[in-house]
Amino acid sequence: MFESLTEKLEAALKSVSGQGRITELNIAGTMREIRRALLEADVNYQVAREFTERVKEKALGTKVLSSVSPGQQLVKIVYDELVRLLGSEQVDINLSPTPPTVILVAGLQGSGKTTFCAKLALYFKKKGRAPLLAAADVYRPAAVEQLKTLAASINVPVYSIEENGQVVQDAVRVAREAVQEARRTARDIVIIDTAGRLHIDEAMMQEVEQIKEAVRPHEILFVVDSMTGQDAVNTAKAFNERLDFDGVVLTKLDGDTRGGAALSIRSVVNKPIKFASTGEKLDALTPFYPDRMAQRILGMGDVISLVERAQEQYDARQAEKLRRKLRSADFNLEDFYEQLQRIKKMGSLRELIGMIPGLGRYVKDLDVDDDAFKHIEAMILSMTPEERRNPDIIDASRRRRIARGSGMEVSDVNQLLRQFKEMRKMMKSMSKLMGKGRAVDLRQ
Ligand code: GDP
Question: Which residues form the signal peptide (predicted)?
Fold first, then answer.
């Protein structure tokens, strides 16, 4: 995400790092470079110009602090301005005090609208809510099916109207009845997936307006594909003029997007970006935090999101259990397998590495292979439970069997077992050290 912008901004900011102080003269080139970097990332021209103007004004007006270099000061100013541009604060969905909360989701076809509806349902489900999806994208028969399939995978009901095996083409009716259905079945959130077209057209706009009128949603979200750059901004403007939506959802931020849409939309339509979608899997959705995004853009990583992802996978009890296991060096291949499953649930390796400060920009050249996990898993799964608990009993003939069973070479099995042994040895010596540490603490 945004690698090229990150690289260019870093280069631009480096050029002032050696300067003793910031002057109109030595900052001019840097500002030009920053502006060019933004324009190349497809940031709206006006937005890019205002951005550099503000940075320059602030930089020249800032007192030179002796403790930090002018370069560092400038990085801070650019960071602050990026956060401001992205909206400053994270903004939540408006929830109705009396259920159900009705959320209307609009956007062009292919923007990732249907996928997002399912993701949002899962997001709320994880928070203990009971969502209902409404299939108001009634023109593409496949759309209703797609929503049903996605919903089934997360165990969320879908409201749709079919007569004689045909989808009834009345989106307003689907939306209205879905809200009634939610009341009847005690569902506290209704998420309405509407029809999109490839381009903005009058019929589509009218229909969404009619749905809005009929169900008076508490929240209208506009979904846009961040890969479409300036088009995303124009579409957002058009939808906002008609619908006056409450928030934007940026999809496909995992792709090769240049970042222009993310950086321009907020200030052009003056509506907050509420969610970022970063993959096809249904858990690839995160609330949008302007500060974290700015950190990523400047190559500072996003440790907070990384920690939060980890926290989702480990509750306090599980973390304690794992810690005890590691300390007693009683950690076996079964535990190892379980940890792999948790890490996998946190996201793709590429995405996780991208959140580590300083590593983001290397990821694009890195051959990070999520399949590496698959091979290890296959080998572990080819072992008997007894072997997983006690890998020392695996002899040569069993190694051959495991290799055959998992489609790997005997040398791969050997390597896995060797590495696992090393890891355990390291844990043993670490736990000894930790034990010593505790003893010292007690004496003090
Ligand atoms: P709709 O026509 O707006 O309802 O769009 P869909 O939900 O059908 O999504 C269009 C395509 O984009 C599908 O192939 C999705 O799997 C894919 N997609 C949706 N969101 C994301 C995302 O955040 N990242 C990636 N890489 N693909 C996505």
Answer: none
C-alpha 111 – ligand 1 centre gap (Å) = 6
Distance (angstroms) between ligand 1 centre and the Cα of 225 equals 8
Confirm or reject: Cβ of 255 under 6 Å from ligand 1.
yes
Q: Is 274 helix (H, G, I), strand (E, B) or coil?
A: strand
76 is written with which tokens? 């801070």
The tally of CA atoms less than 13 A away on the side-chain side of residue 49 is 3
Cβ of residue 145 lying under 6 Å from some atom of ligand 1 = no
The arrangement of secondary structure in 308-443, i.e. its CATH architecture, is Orthogonal Bundle (1.10)
- Inter-residue contact 194 to 111 (CB < 8 Å): no
What is the torsional sign of CA 213, 217, 219, 221? negative
CATH fold of 3-85 reads Four Helix Bundle (Hemerythrin (Met), subunit A) (1.20.120)
Q: Give the atom of ligand 1 at the shortest distance from the alpha carbon of 255.
A: 26
Binding residues for GTP: 107-114, 193-197, 251-254
The pTM for the full model equals: 0.74
Look up the ipTM and state it: 0.98
- What is the rounded CA–CA span in Å between residue 173 and residue 169? 9
Check residue 90 and report its DSSP letter: -
- 277: Cβ below 6 Å to ligand 1? yes
Domain 101-300 sits in CATH 3.40.50.300: yes
Q: Which residues are annotated as a binding site?
A: 107-114, 193-197, 251-254
Q: What is the pLDDT of residues 264-321, one digit of tens each?
A: 999 899 999 999 999 899 989 999 999 888 887 887 666 666 666 776 777 777 777 7
Question: Residue 358 contacts by C-beta under 8 Å, 6 or more apart in sequence?
Answer: 299, 301
- Nearest residue CA, atom 12 of ligand 1? 112
Dihedral sign, Cα of residue 275, residue 278, residue 284, residue 286: negative
Q: Kindly give the distance from the C-alpha atom of residue 112 to the centroid of ligand 1, in angstroms, as a whole number.
A: 4
